[in-house]
Structure formats: C-alpha cells, structure tokens
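User: Hi! I'm working on a homework problem where we have to compare a predicted structure to a textbook description. Could you give me the structure for the chain below?
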Amino acid sequence: MKKLLLSALLSSLLTTTVYAAELAPLKSDTEPDRTDWTQLESKYGPMPAANPKLRIGGVSKTLTNEYWRSLGKGYQNVAAKKGFNVSYLAAANEDDQLGQLSIAETMIAQGFDGLLVSPQTDINLEPALETANSKNIPVVNVNDAVMPNVQYYVGNVQKDNGVRVAEWFITHHPKGGKVAVIEGQPGVYAAGQRTAGFKETLQANGKFNIVASVPANWSREKAFNDASTILQQHPDLIGFYANNDTMALGVVEAVRSQNKSEQTAVFGTDGISDAYASIKRGELTGTVDSFPVLTGEVAMEVMLRLIDGQKLSRVISTPQALITKENADAFSTKDEAKLRQLLVQQ
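Assistant: Happy to help. Predicted structure tokens:
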C-alpha cells in the first residue's frame, strides 16, 4: 500500500503543472496573503447564493475524532442554510492515506463542484489536487496538514497553539521547570508548528527544560504509554503539551495513575467536548480550542465565494483561544452567534 501511495505521489510531482509552478509552496502560518475570518464580508461582500444543484465534497482525516466530525457539521450547517448538497467522507483511520486519497479521487471522478480537504499528511492528497486543478475544480485545504501546492487554505495559526500554552507555563511557573511534548503525526505541518511554537517560546524564556518530545501519532493509548515512561524518568515534571486533545486525555490518565495531578499540568489542542468536560472536572488543565464547527462554516463560505468567481486571499485565518477552568463555561456555549461575538471581542 505504501509503495502504491509513493508511486502516485512521485507521478504527481513529476507532472508539474503551470498552475502549481505559479504558486510558492504554502506555509499557512506565515503566508502574507491572508484575510481574517471576521473580514470576509467587509472585504468581499455578502456570502453569495448557492445553486441547489451544487455538490461539494468534504474529505476528512477520520470520523473517529470529534474534531473532524464537528468540522463536517460546520460544512453541513452552511449547506442546509443555503440549500445545496454536501457529502462528508473520511478514511477509516488517521493512517489510511491511500483510503483518503481514493475518496478524494472518487469525488473528482463523480463531478463534484468543489472539494474541502483535510489531508492526513502534507503530501498524501497531492495526486488528487493535481487532478482537480486540471479540471478547474476548486480545492480548499482545511486545517491541519498543509499541501504545499494548494491555492487556498482555511485554518488557524498552528504555531500559535503551542505559543499560547508555553505562555501559560511562563506565567504560572515563573521559576521554570521540566516539561515534555507529546507530538502528533510526523510529516504533518500542524503538528510540527504546534511543537515548534511551544518549544521556541519556552527556550526563549530560558527557565524551562524540555526533557522529552515524542510523536504519539494522535493516539490516546500511545500518548498514555509515552507519558507514563516520561513521568517515570522525570518524576519532577511540571507539565505536558500534547498536539491534540485525544492524546492529552491519554496523558491525563498517565498523570493520574502516578498521582501527579497536583504537580503536572496537561494541555491539549482542538477543544473537543471531552476536553472541556475534563477541564471542568479539574483533570485536564487546558486546551487551545480552534472551534471546528465555526471553521467548517468559514471554509464552506470560502468555497461558495470561489465558485462564485471571487479571487480571495490564499489563507483565511480562523480563531483559537486558550481554554482553562476559568473560561471553559463561556466558550462552551452552544449559541453560535454568541460564540462568534465572543471570539470577535478577544
């Protein structure tokens, strides 16, 4: 399977189109051609109407993770409001790169009018992107892994996730201490940027020692095992930062099993409901919420604007917020209008 994927990727890279050649490789965190989600209407006008016959495909990493289910809900919210069809499909798991590629290629073959994709790695959907470009089907890369040749990206500043957590440690542990990172999947832009933001901020402070940084591949079980080992090796550890909430909740279990809850803070990323519940119970210290439902709504709005012929910024930035017990109630509101207002006021 891996040989087949490698062969497809090599074929895609060798067939370089003029379209791709005109674009610099995308680095979504630092791309200067960007518009904040709050400025879409003021900059480009009201969201356009949608043809009821429109078919938009959503290609997700997996539906076993609540974050990706919530992102799909955002797509579906806009489709229901505007009266068109969206099909939201995902690979069997976060390692099924060929399965995800097959979903994207099938949607293209079936004549979908646009694709919203969240790749498993930065390169596994490149062959589908190449085909979509050749057929003038708009593709929007939505959060997480970032395809270098994609023209449009919707998502938050990934590096800032790690920065926000690091700043919490600097504020709450002015004397510094030992910390560790539970990374996501190697080869995924978001994972690398989140880790870099955390490490670079603490290293600049000069009072913290990052004693371990290991990939757990988004797995709760692996995160539990890795965190257990790190705690045994460094019983005076003051905190963990995990690249997503699923892994962070595994870390929480490891910390509790070794009676380190009072000493060792644990932070995640994504803002899933289990993370909020754990924070409110006083277990998980915090998460950086990137508001997937709202992100899905913004991404679908971007797609409608592209189909309408609008020329948009290459990156549309979406919001994020550091959530702790102090503000968890406010940010867990189910009132989308109230949440948007809260985020605008940040």
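For your comparison, note the following. The chain has a mean pLDDT of 94. The longest strand covers residues 208-215. Good luck with the assignment!
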